[in-house]
Specification:
heterodimer; A: alpha/beta; Rossmann fold; 6-stranded mixed β-sheet; 4-stranded antiparallel β-sheet; 9 helices; 10 strands; 36% helix; globular; B: mainly alpha; MetI-like fold; 11 helices
Chain lengths: 249, 242
């Protein structure tokens, strides 16, 4: 009897990506099961962000396949727009739409992509603002909010499309230290509620707390792919160990 | 020198008609100029080399020759190819195409001023490139380019005087013709000058309101602002209760 009861929600198989002559990703493979949180760590320039951007086809892979929700999404790139509706993404620099208030930022995609009415979109946005713990900031504009608040609005904006998968690209790297916690708390809550997530981060505390699987990347390759217990239990690859020592000082 | 005559000119049908024609030429040319500029700016972003190339040729031609030349060319040379246009239409076409070239550069600078990450964020939400352009990039670019477009509006009002060369009865031509019949240059030109100032003032007010309406924070501020009278009553009540 096969032991795996369900196929992974996302599976990357031998994904290659080059920018010019520079090979950023070399045959990367990775599987993410539904309701699982995967944390990707590794030195800068190791290809973590590019890997994330390949998943929602912002950077189409040069070769290799990506299966999402049972279908090969790399087979026809014309479907990229459709695929992205189901994959939320959060960026290092938040990238909230500067001309829209917090609540309008969250409402835009449900209205313009899914065709939901303004009042329904407003209800969705109000619920999500509560979920990220800042309902009182609904009518504030991005430049009136702290970094931590902006990033939580950005998470709410991505959630508004009811994604099956969330991608976080160094979500706390641009934040002042005192604001990192509030963002990580929201992410950990989502993970514990079963939101499938891939998180590129240097926050090992978050990895310990929320990750089911830890992936260590270096020079465009997946060096280590371990369960959280294995990884923090010490049975870990030598290069990953050295990297950990560096970032933990 | 007679102020009475200036006043007579101001209210005369000929001057009024001239001023309205100036306004009409300006407004139509601006409208078409903005449309042409927007299309050219968007074409420059396209992935097709041919389209990019043709926009460059257009910009090169229309920014590289005098407007006066373009007006005369369209009015006098097109008929030899069988295209016969009225003086007014020729003038509006020339001014629109000229304006479009400058608008294209202004709009392009606005589009480029919106950070790339904003587009990426829109795409990541599942929006098409067109939707990203319409709901994210253009609204932000619009606020950036409004001041230079205000300059263009006022510039166009004054440039429109050039179309007198193809005998369109606009304001300056009316004034000049009136003056040359009785040599009362001061009165005729003063009347025309007053009209020009009135129209530019109108444009400046229009620009002010446009800038206000594009300020997203204004709506919320005006919602929350308490009328002066209410504030005073509140203060009085507080003082009394002490």
């Amino acid at each position: 009897m096969p032991t795996s009861v369900q196929p992974p929600l996302l599976e990357l198989m031998g994904v290659h990506k080059s920018f010019g002559h520079y090979e950023v990703l070399k045959a990367c493979s990775l599987g993410v099961k539904s309701r699982e949180t995967v944390v990707i760590i590794g030195p800068s320039g190791s290809g973590k962000s590019t890997l994330l951007r390949c998943v929602n086809l912002l950077e189409p892979p040069d070769s290799g396949n990506i299966f999402f929700d049972g279908a090969d999404i790399t087979s026809d790139l014309r479907n990229a727009t459709e695929i992205r509706r189901h994959i939320g993404m959060v960026f290092q620099n938040f990238e909230l739409f500067q001309h829209l208030s917090a609540v309008e930022n969250i409402m835009l995609a449900p209205m313009k992509v899914s065709g939901i009415s303004r009042s329904d979109a407003h209800d969705i946005a109000t619920d999500l603002l509560r979920k990220v713990h800042i309902p009182e900031k609904a009518d504030f504009f991005p430049d009136e909010l702290s970094g931590g608040q902006q990033q939580r609005i950005a998470i709410a904006r991505a959630l508004a499309m009811k994604p099956k998968l969330m991608l976080y690209d160094e979500p706390t790297s641009a934040l002042d230290p005192e604001m990192i916690r509030e963002v990580l708390d929201v992410m950990a809550e989502l993970s514990s509620e079963g939101m499938t997530s891939i998180v590129v981060t240097h926050e090992m505390g978050f990895a310990k707390r929320a990750a089911d699987q830890i992936v260590f990347m270096e020079n465009g390759e997946v060096i280590e792919n371990a369960s959280s217990e294995e990884f923090f239990g010490g049975t870990v690859n030598e290069r990953a160990r050295r990297f950990l020592d560096q970032i933990l000082h | 020198m007679s102020l009475e005559l200036v006043f007579d000119y101001l209210v005369s049908p000929a001057f009024f008609h001239g001023a309205m024609l100036t306004l009409l030429i300006t407004a139509t040319s601006l409208l078409f100029g903005i449309i042409v500029g927007l299309v050219v700016a968007l074409l420059q972003e396209s992935r097709f080399r041919f389209l990019q190339g043709s926009t460059l040729v257009y910009l090169w031609l229309f920014r590289g020759t005098p407007v006066l030349f373009q007006i005369i060319f369209i009015y006098n040379v097109l008929p030899t190819f069988g295209i016969r246009l009225s003086a007014f239409v020729s003038a509006v076409i020339a001014l629109s195409l000229n304006e479009g070239a400058y608008m294209a550069e202004i709009i392009r600078s606005g589009l480029q001023a919106v950070k790339k990450g904003q587009r990426t964020a829109g795409l990541a939400l599942g929006m098409t490139r067109a939707a990203v352009m319409r709901y994210i990039v253009i609204p932000q670019a619009a606020r950036i380019i409004l001041p230079p477009i205000g300059n263009q509006m006022i510039g166009m009002l004054k440039t429109s005087a050039l179309v007198s060369v193809v005998a369109v009865e606009e304001l300056l031509l009316v004034a000049n013709q009136t003056a040359s019949s009785n040599f009362r240059y001061f009165e005729a030109l003063t009347a025309a000058g007053i009209y020009y100032l009135a129209l530019t003032t109108l444009f400046m007010v229009f620009q002010y309101f446009l800038e206000r309406s594009l300020d997203p924070k204004r709506a919320r501020r005006s919602q929350k602002s308490v009328p002066l009278l209410d504030r005073l009553t509140l203060i009085t009540q507080q003082t009394e209760s002490r």
